[in-house]
User: Fold this.
Amino acid sequence: MPGNTFGSLFRLTTFGESHGAALGGVVDGCPAGLNVDIAAVQTELDRRRPGSTPLGTARNETDKVEFLSGILDGTALGTPIGFLIRNSDARSADYDHLKNVYRPGHADRTWEEKYGIRDHRGGGRSSARETACRVVGGAIARQLLALQGVRVEAYVDQVGDIRLERPYTVLDLPSVWKSDVRAPDEAIAQRMTALIEQVRGEGDSVGGRITCVVRGAPTGLGEPVFDKLNADLGKAMLSINAVKGFAFGAGFDAIGLRGSAHNKMHSGGILGGISTGEDIVFDVAFKPVSTIAKAQGTVDRSGRTVILETQGRHDPCVVPRAVPIVEAMTCLVLADHLLRNGTARARDLAPQQR
Amino acid sequence: MPGNTFGSLFRLTTFGESHGAALGGVVDGCPAGLNVDIAAVQTELDRRRPGSTPLGTARNETDKVEFLSGILDGTALGTPIGFLIRNSDARSADYDHLKNVYRPGHADRTWEEKYGIRDHRGGGRSSARETACRVVGGAIARQLLALQGVRVEAYVDQVGDIRLERPYTVLDLPSVWKSDVRAPDEAIAQRMTALIEQVRGEGDSVGGRITCVVRGAPTGLGEPVFDKLNADLGKAMLSINAVKGFAFGAGFDAIGLRGSAHNKMHSGGILGGISTGEDIVFDVAFKPVSTIAKAQGTVDRSGRTVILETQGRHDPCVVPRAVPIVEAMTCLVLADHLLRNGTARARDLAPQQR
Amino acid sequence: MPGNTFGSLFRLTTFGESHGAALGGVVDGCPAGLNVDIAAVQTELDRRRPGSTPLGTARNETDKVEFLSGILDGTALGTPIGFLIRNSDARSADYDHLKNVYRPGHADRTWEEKYGIRDHRGGGRSSARETACRVVGGAIARQLLALQGVRVEAYVDQVGDIRLERPYTVLDLPSVWKSDVRAPDEAIAQRMTALIEQVRGEGDSVGGRITCVVRGAPTGLGEPVFDKLNADLGKAMLSINAVKGFAFGAGFDAIGLRGSAHNKMHSGGILGGISTGEDIVFDVAFKPVSTIAKAQGTVDRSGRTVILETQGRHDPCVVPRAVPIVEAMTCLVLADHLLRNGTARARDLAPQQR
Amino acid sequence: MPGNTFGSLFRLTTFGESHGAALGGVVDGCPAGLNVDIAAVQTELDRRRPGSTPLGTARNETDKVEFLSGILDGTALGTPIGFLIRNSDARSADYDHLKNVYRPGHADRTWEEKYGIRDHRGGGRSSARETACRVVGGAIARQLLALQGVRVEAYVDQVGDIRLERPYTVLDLPSVWKSDVRAPDEAIAQRMTALIEQVRGEGDSVGGRITCVVRGAPTGLGEPVFDKLNADLGKAMLSINAVKGFAFGAGFDAIGLRGSAHNKMHSGGILGGISTGEDIVFDVAFKPVSTIAKAQGTVDRSGRTVILETQGRHDPCVVPRAVPIVEAMTCLVLADHLLRNGTARARDLAPQQR
Assistant:
C-alpha cells in the first residue's frame, strides 16, 4: 500500500522528484465554499523556498504554485484541488558522481534496496524538496482552520546547544519571520545565526528543535484509541525529513516527574488523545543534515569503501526552513480532525443542521 | 471517521470499555496458513495482566482470550480472527464517586466534551485496559514476523531519574521478564523497584522510559513519503495511554550534534523512512500516571473546584506493564509494513511467485 | 489488503465462519448519543434467521445477538460497538463428505486456491450465514437514518418468471413481512410461494429479484467521482452472496430508450452520483442457489469427476431471506454517506454548529 | 470523506473540471521497475478522445498526457506517477446560458445542492471529460497486468435495440477498434452506426450496452466478504457517467433459471467473490445521454419551468467512446486486486520471496 497520501477527510496526495519535471499534489476534501487566498498560499511557499533565508541552500527555485482545478473565482468547489510546482533550477549533472555511491546518513541505499531502482538526482523523491507540496496543502488547511479561529505557529526553539529560555507564552510569535533563523527572541536568534554560519564554515551541519503552538483549537479533536490527536501529530512530524523525535507537553521531561507535580503542569493541550481547548504545544527534534561538505567515508554500489566530497547545495541547519513545514503538517492534521470530529455526535445529524 | 482500527494490510480493530461486558477485537489480513500458537498469545497477555507484576494495580483480571473465528485446528484461514476478553473483576461501584467529577490529568473531561456522554466506570474506553486487545493482535503479528526472523523486544530503560547505563547492545534482553520492573540489569532493576515502592507509599506516581529493539528486520520496510516506518512507529507509540514522547536513533540528543559526528552514530535502523536492515531502536517516554492516592483539587461537571481522593486500583508506575504493549504495537506496525513492502516491486509479480 | 470492513465513517467489520464458535462484528463510527433499540436489532435479525420463513433452510439457529461494548443504558457512547452471535446448531459432521469435494457453483475451489486452506464446514466464511452480522450493523445504521426521516424498505419483486406487475409506488410495502415470500401483493406472493415449493420438491432451486426503495433520503448523498451513491450501493449489493446484477432507475431497460423518453422517467433518485431527494429505487438479481438436492457432477481435490448428492440444509430460493440483507446493506451505505456528506460544505464548520 | 481516489494498493487519484485549466491525476502504488510505455498510454487516451470516432461530440481536444514524476527513463520508480492533461478547446462561453438552469437528467442540480456552488461550464467535474484521467491510470494498470498475461477487452454489445447475436467467445475482439461504433461484428456494427446517425438527426440520443472480457486472470483475485471481485468491478463500472446497471455471468437472466441449469452455465469467471481462472465476463448498461438537441422543459435556480435548447457539443450515444473507459476501470480493479492478493498467504512471506 503506497504512502503518498496524508489524512482521511481532508486529504493531501503528493508526487514529484527533486529533479523531475515538476512536483505537485491533490487536496481532496476541502469543503466547498471556502474562500481560497492563493496569494497567501504562495507566501507560505516562499517561506520554505530555497533562498528564503541566507542560512539555507544556494539552490534557486521560484517555487511558483499553479492551481489547476477545484477553485473557481477564488472559491473552493468541493472538488479536488490539483496543483503544480515546476522544477526550474535542477542541475542534475551536479549529482552524476552520486549515481553509484550511497551518501552516508541518507536514504540512497535504503530506497534502492526497497525499490530496486533509485533516482540519484538530488535524492529523487527522498529529497526534502517534496515538502513544498505539503506547504501548499497546509496553507489551504490553514485557511479552513481560520474559519474556527484556529492559529498555528511554529518557531525555532534550539540550534545546537543554543536554546530559547522563555516558554512560548511570553514570546512574540508573529515576529518569527523577521529573523533569518525563525526564532522569536532577537538576541538568541543572533547567536543561533552565528552558530549556523560557523558550522557552515567548518563544512559541517548542526541539529535543532522546532516548537509548534496551536491557539484556538476547539475541544474534541482526536479519534481514540488509535487516531489520538497526539498520535496523528506525531506521525505528521516524524514523516518530515531529518526528524528524530516528537514530544508534547512535558515530553521526555515527564519521565523524571511525580504525578502530583505533572498533573499541575501544562498537558500539551491534549488529554486522552483529545484536544482540551487549551493551547496545543509540541516539540520536534531535527538531526544535523547528513550532507556535509567535509569529506566522509561511505560505500558504493559494489560495497567498496570510498571517500565522498559533496558538491550539491545544502543547508547547514534545516530548522529555519523547516518551520513552515512543521506548520503545514500541523494544519493538515488539525483540518482533518476538525472534519472528523464533525461526525462524532448524533445530535449534529438533526435535519436543521444540514 | 472513527479511530479504532490500526494498520492497513495487517489490521487490528478493537472494542470494549474498561467495565463493560467484554473487550475484544478483529485481526484482518493475517495471511492464511500461519500456524497460530494460541498459548503464546495468552502468555503475552499474561505479561500485561493486572497482577502480572507486584508493582501494578491490585485489580485482578484473568484476561483469558477466547478466539471465535479465523483459526481452524491452529492454522489461520485467511479470514478475520475475532477474539474476546471478558471483564470479570469490574467493580463499577468503585467509580460512583466519579460520575460527576473529572479526574485531573485524565481524559474524563475531553471525552465528555467530545461525545456528550461518558462511561465513568474506570475511564470507560479511555482506560489502558483497552490495550489488552492490542497485545492479542500484536502477539499474532509477532508470529507472522517470526517467519522472517524478526524479533521485537522492549525493556524499561528508566524509572524517574534512575536509568540503565549500558546501551541495548550489551544487555541481556531475554532476561527482562525475570525482573518485576522489566529491566535487563538486575542491580538497577532493584533500585527502580525500590523507587516505585517508595512512590506508592507516598500516594504518588512516577514516569518512565521504555526502549524497544527490533532485530532481524529486513531492509525496505516503510512507505515514504508519509508512511515512513519511523512515522508509523511513532504514531503507534503515541497512541498508547500516558505516552508523551517518541524518539529513534539519537533522538533529541541529535539536536546538539554536528552532522560529521551524527553520521557515524547508529541511525536507529531507519533512513529516509525505510528500514536499513540494522537493529531498529527507539525510545518511548511515559508520564507519571495521573491517578494518585493523594488528595488533589479538580473540577466537577458544574465547574466547581472539588478535592478528589481516588479509591480505584492503579499502578504507581505504568512502564513495567507497558512493556508488552510497546512490543505489541511494534509488532503490528512491522507486520503491516512487511505486507505492504511485498507489493513494492514489479518483478515480484512474475507468475511463478504467486 | 483484507476485505472484511465496509464503509468509511460509519464502518462495519465482521468476522466468523458458518460452523465456528461465533460470528460477530464491530460497528465503528456510530455517533454518540444515538438511542440504540436493541430489541429492534434482534427483530431484524429474526427476519433473516434460518427458520424465519417456511420457504428457507431447516437449520435452526436462534441468532441471538449479544452486545459487548459501545452502548451504555441504551445510548451509544461514540465508541466501537462490539457484538456476537454464537453458532449453536452447527452440525459440522454434515459436511464431512465435502472435505475433498468442491461443490459446483460454490466458492469452495476458489477460496482454497486463494488461501491454500479452506473451512469446508458449511462453506466456512463464504457461507451466507456471514450476512447475519451485516443485518446487525444495518439495523443500527437504520436507527441513525431514522433521525433524518430516512426509511429503507425492500421486497421480493420476482421469483423465477413470476413478477409483480405494479411499481413500488402503488404497493403496500409495510405488508411485506406478512407473506412468507416477502412480496407485497398477496395473490402474486401465493404464486411465488407455490413455485418455490414446487422447485423444492424437484430438488432444485430458482432465482429471484429484490427491489429496494429508500424514502426520505436528503439530497446531496454521494461522493463523486468514484464514490457515487449508486456505485457504493452497487458494490454493497454485489457483495451479497448469490447476487449477479444491480440496476437503478430504468436499469438495463435504459439501453433501448431514447434520451427524450428517458429524461422524463424516474432517475432512480440519483443523478451524477448524488441523491436527488426523490425516492431511491434499485433492483438486485439473485441467481438460483447452487446447492441443490439433485445429484450433480463435480470435481474433487485430486481433479477427478465425482457425483455429489448434497445432504446439508439449504434454501430453494434465497430472495425471501435476502430481503433484510438488502435492506441492511442499503442502510450501511446511506448512514456512511450521511456522515460523509456532513463535511462537504465550509459553512457547516462555523463554530456555532459544533 | 472525499471520493476522488480509487483503489487501495494500486491507487488512482484524479482532479480537474471539464473547462478548468487542466485535468490530471496521481497513480500511487505502481510497483517499481515496471517498464512504462508512454506511447501506449497516449494511444488508449486517443481512443477515448472527443473526435476519435465520427459518432461522438465535435469538441476537439488533443488530450495529450504529460507525465511529471514517478518514471525515469521509461521505468517506474515506485514513487507516485503524476500526470496532466491540459484543456485546450474549452469554449466556456457556450455554457453561459446554463449558469442559472439545471439540465434535465444531469447532475447540475444535485451538485449545486450538495456543495452550494457549481461549475456550470460543461458540467464542471461531473462531466465525463473527467474519465480521461481514468484512461491514463488504467493504461498503466494494463501494463502491470500484462506481466501476468492478463488481457482486458471490451466492446459494444448493444445500441438501442440492436444487439450482437454471438457470444464473446466467437467474436474477433481485437477488431473492435476498426469499427466506429466499437463492435466486433461488421454487419451489426453498420446497423448500430446507422441507428446512432439517425438518432443524431432526430436531435435525440440512445442507450447501449458494453461487454467486457478479461482473459488470463489468475485464480484468487477478490477479497471477501465485502471486497469481492464482482463487487469492486460493479462499483468501478457504476462510477462511470451514464451507467445504470452492472451484471456478470448470467446476470439478470439468472432470475428465471433453475439451479440445475445455472450451475452448468458460465459463472462470469467469479465464484464466491474470487476469480476462478476462467474468462471474466460482465455487462454494463448505459442510459441514453441526457443532453439532447431537442428542446426540453426543465427548471432554473429560482424553481421556474423553462424550455432548454442545448448548444454544447455532445455524443448521441456514449458507448463507442465509453469502451476504453470500461477497460480502464477494469484494469484498475484488477491491478489493485493482483497486488492485494499478494499478501493472502503466509508461505509467500518466506525470506527468499522478497
